[in-house]
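[Q] Does anyone have a clean structure-token version of this?
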Amino acid sequence: MTLFYILSTLVSCTANTNNDEPGIQNILPLGDSITEGVPFTYRYPLFNLLSEENYPFDFVGTQTEGGWDYPEEGWDRDHEGHGGWMTQSIQEELPNWLPQYNVDIALVHLGTNDAGADDVEGSYAAMTSIVEQLRAHNDSVAICIAQILPFGSQLPAEGVEAGAEALNSFVVNWNSRIDNLASELTTATSPIVSVDMHSDFGDPDLDDDVHPNQSGARKMAEKWFACISSL
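[A] Here you go.
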């Protein structure tokens, strides 16, 4: 169900082989087109940040598409970003993906495509289910959940019925719920961290009023890196 981004081609790839060496952290980038990258994604700069710090990691997921403005080779492209998907759609398909890899840390940025439906309660229930599924898969999984990016001030764009004010009203409400979810559901063995991808972001960080530009993707990567480093 696409609100802003019509996915030109969604290629399903065989999941990567987990790196099960002791100490290696399997990191799952989970989300929509902002995770996939159209054309920019936080995954490339995050890969570089983690590599520069000699952090032992392996990105996992069934997808390798997106991030077209970055090099084709030389970095770990695995992810679980699905352009145009709502939180409920991800929640429904997650049971089919999780058996294909291990997850030690999940990076979740979801809710952008939910804004048009404006059903915070339904989206919140789906996000809660995602947390439960990740924990059923690994009871000590660490989860970084984003308070999502704002929409740019120049919306509406083609194909978008609601303007920036209405969409951002949902985002503010949603982000508040994400903050509450992290506080209420975090545990010592499976921490949940609410990551602020909202208050420091605005038009200069966006490529098309929805997706991050190159500098915005770098800023997102720095936020994720801080969360990972805190675990």
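[Q] Thanks! Anything notable?
[A] The chain has a mean pLDDT of 90.
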